[in-house]
Structure formats: structure tokens, C-alpha cells
Design goal:
It is a single chain. This protein has about 260 residues and is mostly helical. Helices cover about 75% and strands about 0% of the residues. The radius of gyration is 18 Å and the shape is globular. Belongs to the UppP family.
Length: about 260
């Protein structure tokens, strides 16, 4: 293993952590950065799946106190209701993903579909931001099961590569009447079971590409994804308290056109 491979792993880990929880699609960024560095092939695909675990642990570390409270107080109605909401939001994408995983991987994972989804997602964010909204839900504890189910249905759209899981769930939350902060935080919590299930399932399917020879490579990507995701989660929560998602919409459109031009 060369030092350049480790550098590539670090760069991709940073890219994964910086983009996973923003409404900009980590998939699109990993595709173009990986291709630009020549980091492609089956090993690269397995690596990109694996480092998502680093991002997941990053957001779990940020919410470690709340997660501990959920585990210790699950017998109380507010905690039970919150866990039920997460389960309701998790199930739609889990069921659809399980049924269509093979078809999605075979037909939709290419730069052109990702670029189209990036642009379309940016346009949708702009439209949602223009809609008149009444913020009915200000905190996570005020989310109703029907709100959670609506967000879960929105999350199924993220099975299309390039849509962005966080983008779909946050926008779904806004449409359902959540405040920006509540929609963002619920998206982060929903990421934990969703990404764990999707990542572990994908790794199980591609287990043959995980070898001891690449241990340092995968570890470097995991660690950098963890720390960069931790930084982004904290900064993003501070941002959404005072700003709209419009800048991310324009960024998506510009980046989608860049991906399209790069691979044309």
C-alpha cells in the first residue's frame, strides 16, 4: 500500500464527513473526487460504503447524552414516543430499499443520474423555501407519528442516488410543519438506524472486498469521516437556527452541472 492511497483515503473521509449530513449529496461528491484522484473500482465502492460508519459514529457522539437518556428512560412515554417516531420514519425507506437495492445499484449509480438528482433536488429546495409555511412543531418531543411517517416517506426519495438523504428528510420535515432546527435534528437521529442498516447490508453484500491488506486505508477514511462529520453537525445546527437552505439549493444546482460537465 502506498502513502498516496492513504492520502486518498483521508481526503475521501473528509469529503464524506463534510457532505453526509448536509443537503448536498455525499454520493455526488465522492464520485467526482474519487474519479479525479483515480480512486475507482470495486474496492473504492466498498471503501465509500465503509467510511459512512465513521460519519454515523460522529453524529452519535454529538448526541451521546440524548442517546443515553433514551436508553435509560425508554420506559417513559416521551422517550417511547420518540423511538416509535424514529421507527415509523425508518420503515418506508428500509422496506423499499430492501426490495430495490439490486436494481438501484445496477441502473442508477452513475454520474449522470446523480447529476440530474443534484440539480432537481436544488430546484425542489428553492420551491419549498418559497412555500408559505406555519411552523407547528418546534421540538423533537412535539413530533407526531403522522409527521414521522411523512418524513419517512420523503426519505424513500433518497434511495435515488444524488437526492441526498438529509436533504429529503429535512425538506420533508419542513413540509410536515417542523421548524428548521427540529427537522434537522430529526434528520440526524433518523440517519443513525437508516445509515447503519444500509451500510451494514451493503458491506455484507460486498464482504469479499474487505481484506486485511486495506486495514490502514479503511481506518484512515473512517477516522477522518468521524471527525469531519462531528464538526459539520455542530456547525450546521448553529447555521439552521438563523438561515434558510437556499444557499445549499444553489450549490446543488451548480455542483450538479459541474458533475455533468466533468463526466460528459
Amino acid at each position: 500500500m502506498t502513502a498516496w492511497l492513504v492520502v486518498q483515503a483521508v481526503i475521501l473521509g473528509i469529503v464524506e464527513g463534510l457532505t453526509e449530513f448536509l443537503p448536498v449529496s455525499s454520493t455526488g461528491h465522492l464520485i467526482i473526487v474519487g474519479d479525479a484522484m483515480g480512486f475507482t473500482g470495486e474496492r473504492a465502492k466498498t471503501f465509500e460504503i465503509f467510511i459512512q460508519l465513521g460519519s454515523i459514529f460522529g453524529v452519535m457522539w454529538h448526541y451521546r447524552t440524548r442517546l443515553a437518556d433514551l436508553a435509560l428512560r425508554i420506559h417513559r412515554p416521551p422517550e417511547r414516543r420518540f423511538v416509535l417516531n424514529l421507527l415509523l420514519a425508518f420503515l418506508p425507506a428500509a422496506l423499499v430499499g430492501l426490495l430495490l437495492h439490486g436494481a438501484i445499484k445496477e441502473h442508477l449509480f452513475n454520474p449522470f443520474t446523480v447529476a440530474g438528482a443534484l440539480v432537481a433536488g436544488g430546484v425542489v429546495i428553492l420551491l419549498i423555501e418559497r412555500l408559505p409555511r406555519r411552523e407547528r412543531v418546534a421540538t423533537l418531543d412535539a413530533i407526531r407519528p403522522i409527521d414521522a411517517l411523512k418524513i419517512g416517506m420523503a426519505q424513500t426519495l433518497a434511495l435515488f442516488p444524488g437526492v441526498s438523504r438529509s436533504g429529503a428528510t429535512i425538506m420533508g420535515g419542513l413540509v410536515a410543519g417542523l421548524s428548521r432546527k427540529a427537522a434537522t435534528e430529526f434528520s440526524f437521529f433518523l440517519a443513525m438506524p437508516t445509515m447503519f442498516a444500509a451500510t451494514l447490508y451493503a458491506l455484507y453484500k460486498d464482504l469479499g472486498h474487505l481484506t486485511g491488506d486495506h486495514l490502514l486505508l479503511f481506518a484512515a477514511g473512517f477516522v477522518t469521516a468521524f471527525f469531519s462529520a462531528l464538526v459539520v453537525v455542530r456547525a450546521f445546527l448553529a447555521y439552521v437556527a438563523r438561515h434558510t437552505f437556499v444557499p445549499f439549493a444553489y450549490y446543488r444546482i451548480g455542483f450538479g452541472l459541474l458533475v455533468l460537465a466533468y463526466f460528459w
